[in-house]
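A protein record pairs a chain with a discrete description of its three-dimensional fold. The following entry can be read in just this way.
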Amino acid sequence: MEGVIHNLNTWWHHLEKNPQRTGWFCGVSLAIIAGICFLLALGSTPLVDETEPLFAEAARQMTVTGDWITPYFNQETRFDKPPLIYWLMAIAYNLIGVNEWAVRLPSALSAISLMVLVFITLRRCGLARPKNAQPEALNSRTSQRQLWLSPWIASALCALNIQTIAWARTGVSDMLLSGCMGGAMLCFFCGYTAPQEASERRILPNGWYIAFYTLLALAVLAKGPVGIVLPGLTIIPFLLYVGQFRTVWRESKPLLGALWFALLTVPWYVLVILDNGQDYIDSFFGYHNVERFTQVVNEHSAPWFFYFLVVLVGFLPWSVYLPWAIARLRFWQPQLWRQQPRTAHLGIFALAWFTSIFVFFTIAVTKLPSYVLPLLPAAAILVALLWSDLLTRESPSDQKPWGMWWTGGINGLFLLALGIACWRIPQFMGFDPAAPNWDQVVDQTPFPEIGAVIWCLGAGAIALCLILSRYRHWILLINLVVFTSFLLFSALPLLDVAVGQRQNALKELSLEASQVIQPEEQMMMIGFWKPSIVFYSHIPTLFFSHTPIALKHWREEADQIEPEDSLLLISYPNSVEQLNLQPQDYEMLAEKGAYQLFRFSPRVLLERNP
């Protein structure tokens, strides 16, 4: 092991003496991480019901109808989200076809763009301590090392966490919001730390501020008012804390920024309201914004401590270092921070970013794990600054082994717990009527055991580093290697098997339906809500939660039913029994997994159920 450590140290010193090679190493290694986390096998699994196909089909409808203002799903307006995610998916459809890759590509590119902006920002001002940002210390060996370590670690941590990977590989708007909002925050800070000579005499703000206003507008087009509310709740308290509010107000030209912001956002909102009137206002602004904050929507309630658990689990293993990373900032000493140059303020800015989003959604009544996704870049920055500081301390008096013992020990215990949980994944999966045997199929694969071994080896390696105290700084590298190995050799293959078991049959049956459907024939589903059928079949579908509701609908339509009319039904095998249909009343066209495709006459249906 001594030889390995010596070789790695020699290699690192060689990189330090060659900044160009250091840049290439950072770029290539982060590109590999991004490729594994966000692009590898991105389109290998079908869309996952229920949310992902809603976005995918609404975007497809834009390409079919040419209406890029009002989103539609299944012939009904869909006002849940603004249009940016639909526009990007529709553009991807035109470029690479209507497929899973195109649906998920905007989310993946948002995550990659965020990684790049994190690297650029910390390469400019990722100094771990205020003393390193002083003019006389900028060219020191410690400062120069930190300006490579901080951006590399922060970018890697931005990618290598459970929540970011999950949402970056899902075709919904959450990762797009996080990318736009996080990019806006980072551009603001770059503008804040840029040279401000004669800024008051400039007509326009510097380019970073213009990028900030642009990304704010895109965030609002991605998710709505929250795209500007959360940055405002971060930036205003931060500027007041560091005593820079009035100065930055003059520098950033907010009135011009507001005009540019309005030019980008207002036209679509005006057009969609003109097309849909009060229905849009009530649905989007009322239900999907105000009510989600003040009331429980769709039964998404949770206790007040919900997001503590979400951040702890979703940002593992790095979340165990967050308390230490926050405490080391000494945020209770504002006067100390007001005396520092702006380039030293990144840690405090990241803390304001993390806290504002965490508190905002903790107060909100409706709670979902994805809501705190936009605070993860701030968490990555906080932990990266901590590790950059730990890895560049040269004086023994600067070392604080107790902090590493505590956090490293908790880190190792969490990896051990993850290993045990991974080994027992089949038992945690539960029953799903759409894939009744998926736990058995997963149990027959080696992937849970591979994941368990990887996590347990990581826990053992961390324990060894803590015992051999001079190697404890290698804990960061161990975590990076373990997480990447788990993702590559266990998580992604396991996801492919589990999602395939749940969705492949439905995708195949939907494609079959698109081939056998007759002109004017309708399709319906009873007992479950699977919007992926609409996306894959391109057939408008009637969804009924229960058989009596379906029968009531057809009784109301009885006067309009012609003798030659027929229906397609995708459902479970017992559905025809619940409809009181006899074998001679229907034709079974296909069977895939837990689903069957039937054809029958609505007139016969009503005769059997008068």
